[in-house]
Design brief:
Layout: E1 2-7, E2 16-21, E3 30-40, H1 42-49, E4 64-72, E5 84-88, E6 98-102, E7 107-108, H2 115-135, E8 143-146, H3 152-163, E9 167-172, H4 175-182, E10 188-191, H5 197-204, E11 210-215, H6 222-226, E12 229-237, H7 251-255, E13 260-262, H8 266-269, H9 273-288, E14 296-301, H10 305-313, E15 320-324
Helix pairs in contact: 2-3, 2-9
GO molecular function, one term: quinone reductase (NADPH) activity
EC number: 1.6.5.5
Protein name: NADPH:quinone reductase
Length: about 325
């Protein structure tokens, strides 16, 4: 028996229970992983509340972790027992001391990447990779707007976009978060509670607007994000921390400048093992080069995962939050 967080009914953080569970031996194509560090992400909140539906109840939340391979099932040849690995992949289940997962979802960790770094960046860092390199491919000289610039994805994306030669504008909720974002590549942090971010973006871009907006906030920012775009600009709506985006009349995209809109998810961009390894490889490269720093700013015991969720939902976190088994 091992310990894990279990959710028996959807609701608030209080629904997360610390329980003993049985972990089976890995089957064909699977691996047993002992977690050393576990990542916390807003998608975990979506599953806990029922906004996203797990396969059934009860379930163990969590999509990201680093650890060590303890055993492999039949047919697994790319991984060895004792190898350090990390992952960011469905189905949920990482809030546990150990789990069985499809072996083709595990990425071997290079020596230059620590377990805590990996658990703090696999989901957020690979998200930044597909946002900046594929959903809209940032070019030198582009101006981009990154909402929640001091958050987990935001801090990584700001550094990476700056590394690519973009002018980086970001929205933040406080003076402290503005300074944090600025220290991580965001040249122009906008405190959205005190100034109109659409007006400020237009001012910073000489009235033109940005090439792309990366929006994880959803309902509260969606339409005004469209107003920040230049003609034929791209809105990448990849989250909804403020709630789901209302239905959209697509004619609005034409009216506002023949805009592009995409609602991607990481898991479609890493569905094949080839894409997964290529995405992780590019992330590891920019981290090992020092172009992107991974900031793990909050740590909680795994048994106190509910407190981690309260901090995340209360906007009291910056950078990455991890759980320690």
């Amino acid at each position: 028996m091992v310990q894990a967080i279990r959710v028996h009914q959807h609701g608030g953080p209080e629904q997360m229970r610390w329980e003993s569970v049985t972990v089976p031996a890995p089957g064909p194509g699977e691996a047993l992983v002992r977690h050393t560090v576990i990542g916390v992400n807003y998608i975990d909140v979506y599953f806990r509340t029922g906004l996203y539906q797990p396969a059934g109840l009860p379930f163990t939340p969590g999509m990201e972790a680093a650890g060590v391979v303890e055993a492999v099932g039949e047919g697994v040849t790319e991984l060895a027992v004792g190898e350090r690995v990390a992952y960011a992949s469905p189905p949920p289940g990482s809030y546990a001391e150990q789990r069985v997962i499809a072996a083709d979802r595990l990425v071997p960790l290079p020596d230059g990447i620590a377990d805590e770094q990996a658990a703090g960046m696999m989901l957020k860092g690979m998200t930044a990779q597909y946002l900046l390199r594929r959903a809209y491919r940032v070019q030198p000289g582009d101006a981009v707007l990154i909402h929640a610039a001091a958050g987990g994805v935001g801090l990584i994306a700001c550094q990476w976009a700056r590394h690519l030669g973009a002018m980086v504008i970001g929205t933040v909720g406080s003076a402290e978060k503005a300074e944090l974002a600025r220290a991580h590549g965001c040249e122009h942090p906008i405190r959205y509670r005190e100034e109109d971010f659409v007006e400020r973006v237009r001012e910073l871009t000489g009235g033109e607007g940005v090439a792309a907006v990366y929006d994880s906030v959803g309902r509260d920012t969606f339409e005004r994000s469209l107003d920040c775009l230049r003609r034929r600009g791209t809105l990448v709506s990849f989250g909804q921390s403020s709630g789901p985006v209302p239905p959209l009349d697509v004619g609005l995209l034409a009216k506002k400048g023949s805009l592009f809109l995409t609602r991607p998810t990481l898991f479609h961009y890493t569905a094949s093992r080839e894409d997964l390894l290529a995405t992780a490889r590019e992330l590891f490269e920019v981290v090992e080069q020092g172009a992107v720093r991974i900031e793990v700013n909050e740590r909680f015991p795994l048994a106190e995962a509910a407190e981690a969720h309260r901090a995340l939902e209360g906007r009291r976190t910056t950078g990455s939050t991890v759980l320690l088994p």
